[in-house]
Amino acid sequence: MVSVLTSSALFKTLLFLSLCSVWLLPDLALAKHAGITRHYKFNIKMQNVTRLCQTKSIVTVNGQIPGPRIIAREGDRLLIKVVNHVQYNVTIHWHGIRQLRSGWADGPAYVTQCPIQTGQSYVYNFTITGQRGTLFWHAHISWLRATLYGPIVILPKRHASYPFPQPFKEFPIVFGEWWKADTETIINQAMATGGAPNISDAFTINGLPGPSYNCSAKETFKLKVKPGKTYLLRLVNAALNDELFFRVANHTLTVVEADAVYVKPFKTDIVLITPGQTTNVLLKAKSKTPNAKFAMSARPYATGPATFDNTTAIGILEYKKSASASSSNNMNIPLLKAKLPQFNDSTYAMKFNQKIRSLATRKFPVKVPKKVDRRFFFTVGLGILPCSKNQTCQGPNNVRPAAGINNVSFVQPNTALLQAHFFNRSKGVYTTNFPTNPPFKFNYTGTPPKNIMLDSGTKLVSLNYNTSVELVMQDTSILGAESHPLHLHGFNFFVLAQGIGNFDPKRDPAKFNLVDPAERNTVGVPSGGWVAIRFLADNPGVWFMHCHLEVHTSWGLKMAWVVNDGKGPKQKLMPPPADLPKC
């Protein structure tokens, strides 16, 4: 007997089968369709995790550390529902995503949104426009990003290829930082007592510290490769407070991308990567299986006077053995160590950063603004602030360490800046009189002035739509010169030049590279030096700019740019979504 399906039943069967096939396909297979909408669900939940012989309860996404990898293609729309099941207020920032006209999805707490409170949820809704490469997501409130972070992989549009040889396989390598103690307690105590927060106990590679730490030999990330194959490593520095040197023993890396922008490929043994930066490198495996394993090591680049976590995270690069090779031999294979620069090797840091240049091809042009509408000179560095009247501080004369830009230490408002801007309710929330230059000139990298007290306030810069901005950021020696990785939300910028000492407005602009400058979202202001950048303010909204060393952000090394709407319909900020959290 032959059964006949009605057209309705046939349609339902086909629909069911097609849905099943979509459900069964892995992420990468799904990613083959350009311009689709992708749904993710982030459950913020506590999870017991053991590291360095100690178990503690940490805040996670879906119980994972690092959190889930987001995979999309250029042109895709992402809808990411974040549900908060923990006691803390939470926000998530999609670091490096342009968020064109979608500032409500950017994520910094009290800048573009009020936080997601316990038991509440929020859908981050944004489209990836004109970007492809490696970025990452992380919490953007207090110090929760210590454990709330994960990679974002943006594949090229369908049928578009990489401008370098297609790798055999790709792996995210996400650097993190681990404390035995609870990180929220650490920063809250430090802010209450006016002291510096305790340094971390370990660094991690994909959540694992590796064999250089106590009881951690089994908690080691292992990368298994085949001889002769080329691998793409997507490096992300999600550490809180430390720039990192990274090296794979006895292997050369080829840098092909920085901050999700293709660069002119260059070979290097060592990569320098600041918190907030991402770097894609090609690793070519040796042609024959060597009788060795190779350390993949990450250790701090630290320039400031403060103590730091001077330890090394180690992963292991292993070559896949043939089936005939015995497993007993595998146990005796030596581990070759990776030699890294001195922790304060600022010369190496400067040389490495100067090698990063945009492709500047017809397919990947450099759109650096040639004319400049507004120029800014920002000092970035440390200082002091008086402690509040009901607070007893550890510092002399009841002062505490602080940080600022142009002598202003940023005060976080208790409502979101973007809402205040959009609804014309800025009065009492923020002012737009952020100083264009420091309040007084001094020898920025020489002997500090006697008065190192900072001002404080919620001050912003207001820019008209499509304003081209040139910004020179100058480190200061107040409380010690130090490298500061500055991150700008909502934009990529062009790194025109950098130098040591004080910026010379007469001589140094002649060194500006307007041909193939690096295009980034995070740049290290050199220790005792300066960096010059340009960007086009073509994205309406309120955009945070801050040091990506979390301790300095906590101390006030942050500010924001208000970019006003343009005249055209596509030059205006979209209205807020209905589920935008309330303060």
From TrEMBL:
<feature type="domain" description="Plastocyanin-like">
    <location>
        <begin position="170"/>
        <end position="321"/>
    </location>
</feature>
<keyword id="KW-0479">Metal-binding</keyword>
<dbReference type="InterPro" id="IPR011707">
    <property type="entry name" value="Cu-oxidase-like_N"/>
</dbReference>
<feature type="signal peptide">
    <location>
        <begin position="1"/>
        <end position="31"/>
    </location>
</feature>
<keyword id="KW-0732">Signal</keyword>
<dbReference type="InterPro" id="IPR001117">
    <property type="entry name" value="Cu-oxidase_2nd"/>
</dbReference>
<dbReference type="Pfam" id="PF00394">
    <property type="entry name" value="Cu-oxidase"/>
</dbReference>
<comment type="function">
    <text>Lignin degradation and detoxification of lignin-derived products.</text>
</comment>
<dbReference type="InterPro" id="IPR045087">
    <property type="entry name" value="Cu-oxidase_fam"/>
</dbReference>
<dbReference type="InterPro" id="IPR034288">
    <property type="entry name" value="CuRO_1_LCC"/>
</dbReference>
<keyword id="KW-0439">Lignin degradation</keyword>
<keyword id="KW-0325">Glycoprotein</keyword>
<dbReference type="Pfam" id="PF07731">
    <property type="entry name" value="Cu-oxidase_2"/>
</dbReference>
<dbReference type="InterPro" id="IPR011706">
    <property type="entry name" value="Cu-oxidase_C"/>
</dbReference>
<protein>
    <recommendedName>
        <fullName>Laccase</fullName>
        <ecNumber>1.10.3.2</ecNumber>
    </recommendedName>
</protein>
<dbReference type="InterPro" id="IPR033138">
    <property type="entry name" value="Cu_oxidase_CS"/>
</dbReference>
<dbReference type="GO" id="GO:0052716">
    <property type="term" value="F:hydroquinone:oxygen oxidoreductase activity"/>
</dbReference>
<dbReference type="GO" id="GO:0046274">
    <property type="term" value="P:lignin catabolic process"/>
</dbReference>
<feature type="domain" description="Plastocyanin-like">
    <location>
        <begin position="434"/>
        <end position="566"/>
    </location>
</feature>
<dbReference type="InterPro" id="IPR034289">
    <property type="entry name" value="CuRO_3_LCC"/>
</dbReference>
<dbReference type="InterPro" id="IPR017761">
    <property type="entry name" value="Laccase"/>
</dbReference>
<comment type="similarity">
    <text>Belongs to the multicopper oxidase family.</text>
</comment>
<dbReference type="InterPro" id="IPR034285">
    <property type="entry name" value="CuRO_2_LCC"/>
</dbReference>
<keyword id="KW-0186">Copper</keyword>
<keyword id="KW-0052">Apoplast</keyword>
<dbReference type="InterPro" id="IPR002355">
    <property type="entry name" value="Cu_oxidase_Cu_BS"/>
</dbReference>
<dbReference type="InterPro" id="IPR008972">
    <property type="entry name" value="Cupredoxin"/>
</dbReference>
<feature type="domain" description="Plastocyanin-like">
    <location>
        <begin position="44"/>
        <end position="157"/>
    </location>
</feature>
<dbReference type="GO" id="GO:0005507">
    <property type="term" value="F:copper ion binding"/>
</dbReference>
<keyword id="KW-0677">Repeat</keyword>
<keyword id="KW-0560">Oxidoreductase</keyword>
<dbReference type="GO" id="GO:0048046">
    <property type="term" value="C:apoplast"/>
</dbReference>
<dbReference type="Pfam" id="PF07732">
    <property type="entry name" value="Cu-oxidase_3"/>
</dbReference>
<keyword id="KW-0964">Secreted</keyword>
